[in-house]
Amino acid sequence: MAELEHFQMLIDGEYVDASDGGTFESVNPATEAAWATIPAATADDVDRAVKAAHRAFTEGPWASTTPTQRGKYLRKLGDILAENSEKLGLIESVDTGKMAKETKWQAAYIAEFFHFFGGLADKITGHTLPIDKPDMDVFTNREPLGVVAAVVPWNSQLFLVAVKLGPALAAGNTIVLKASEHASAAMLEFGKLIEEAGFPPGVVNIVSGLGEPCGRMLTTHPQVARISFTGGPETARHIIRNSAENFAEVSLELGGKSPVMVFEDADLESAANGIIAGIFGATGQSCVAGSRLYVQESVADELIGLIAATAKTIVIGDPLADETQMGPLATTGQMAHIEKEVAYAIEQGAKVVHGGKRPEYLSTGLYYEPTILECPSQDTKIVDTELFGPVLSVLRFKDEEEVLRYANDTKYGLAAGIFTRDGARQHRVAKAVRAGIVWVNTYRVVSPIAPFGGFGESGMGRESGADAIYDYTRPKTVWINTSSEPMSNPFVMR
Ligand code: NAD
């Protein structure tokens, strides 16, 4: 058996194992074999990481580093990340089963997030206020919050690091990142770039471990001022309860069941490509997966035919191979969840247009076929259940009013897609659909410049976009009495 690779945590500027030597194994979903060992942080390790971050925030050189210098550190980190994108992308691919060509490209593009937030570091401003009192100058400064605890899932390690670390550090905070127990390797490897970029010890700390105790310890720690969480809604409920311990500010980026609406005047080939990118890209393991397709009746057969024809040709297999178009699911838990929900949808009357099972020709690996299910009604359970896999539920609609009713009949509110050539309808439907991100005649595009996030069970707060940086600051209001007269008697009202 090949020797397992080992990754270490970054605490207070040092690369370390868990203090009790504890580890867990990370499994390569393409082979179903363990390929790496990961430190399982103890409560003491988490405490040490938070205290190091707190010290760096209050006492270390970081506290007096100018915003311009913070921006330079972040831009340098972006450059180093781009130089290391091949290696980091490869590690993420082996660890998660995501296609290497995608993870390598993503790792290189993520550099843009550090450049963007680095550029914003010295553009965070307060206001002077036209106050309603004589002889007073009043203004606000935006100050960093302190220690940020960032807790992330397994599906996009480097991307999630960028959207949390970028604004947090640009604003002057320090951070403790907690990797997912299902895939930590790329994030721990990324830790090696922190020192090279010049950050002082303790400014960035990266720990790995289970949700319990590591995630709980981190998010209840009294020295944590802000929690930035990405993951599932059930864990998010724990996070909110955890924040009752330390009154940390909380933002939540959660799941979705995003609708894609295709109207009869759409370019159907383009729509089919958008739908396929939305649901089969990253094997559907994406929070913005366009997993609910609504197609207007008159073009339904043609569009479903187009998607099914492409789904049949999708090359499933080794995520490291260039010809692969869809890799495996990341965990056995994911496989069990998807198989159970698909079986139940069929029991409820859903018709399998394509897929619905593991590919028979691949005996090893967590592979699942690209799956298209035509559902009998909006009430079919799968229509509002996040699967986080390559499964598209399809329903037909008569008109705009009906499709908006269906699209908005959800507990989620993350993303939505609209395919139509009618300009007025593009604006009308984009306005009416309940989603934080709306893509018109396109799907699954992101940028550091564009806010990202949802509402309802899709979370609260926004990541990316210039405003994200303000979520990592608080205003301080300063009142200056400009009168040369002494203060008057406080017991005389006027
Ligand atoms: P998860 O909620 O199970 O785990 C996320 C993280 O929370 C992990 O690091 C885990 O260790 C930690 N955790 C678990 N219990 C905890 C506790 N009690 N206290 C503190 N931390 C705890 O999520 P997952 O299954 O790994 O990821 C899939 C979910 O993430 C999906 O719902 C998906 O839609 C969502 N997601 C959302 C976005 C977005 O930006 N909106 C992006 C990617 C993934």
Brief description of this entry?
This protein is of the alpha/beta class and 494 residues long.
What does this 3D model show about the protein?
Helix content is 36%, strand content 21%. α10 links the parallel β13 and β14 (292-296). It has 14 helices and 21 strands. It starts with a strand and ends in a 13-residue tail after the last strand. Residues 151-156, 178, 180-182, 210-212, 215-216, 219, 230-232, 235, 238-239, 242, 253-255, 287, 386, 388 line the site of nicotinamide-adenine-dinucleotide (NAD).
Task: Note the beta-strand portion.
Answer: 15-25%
Major β-sheet profile: 7 strands, mixed
Molecules bound to protein: nicotinamide-adenine-dinucleotide
Rg from alpha-carbon coordinates: 24 Å
- Assembly state here? single chain
Helical stretch count? 14
Averaged pLDDT, please? 97
Shape estimate: globular
Tally the structural domains. Answer: 2
- What do we call the CATH homologous superfamily of the largest domain? Aldehyde Dehydrogenase, Chain A, domain 1
Helix content: 25-40%
CATH class of the largest domain: Alpha Beta
Distance N to C terminus: 85 Å
Layout of secondary structure:
Blueprint: E1 5-6, E2 9-11, E3 14-16, E4 23-28, E5 33-39, H1 43-58, H2 67-83, H3 85-96, H4 100-120, E6 128-129, E7 136-144, E8 147-151, H5 157-170, E9 174-179, H6 185-190, H7 192-196, E10 204-208, H8 211-220, E11 224-230, H9 233-246, E12 249-253, E13 259-262, H10 268-280, E14 292-296, H11 297-313, H12 332-347, E15 351-354, E16 371-374, E17 391-397, H13 400-407, E18 415-419, H14 423-432, E19 437-440, E20 459-460, E21 473-481
Parallel strand pairs: 1-5, 8-9, 8-11, 9-10, 11-12, 13-14, 13-18, 14-17, 16-17, 18-19
Antiparallel strand pairs: 2-3, 4-5, 6-7, 7-21, 12-20, 15-16
Helix pairs in contact: 1-8, 2-4, 3-4, 4-5, 10-11
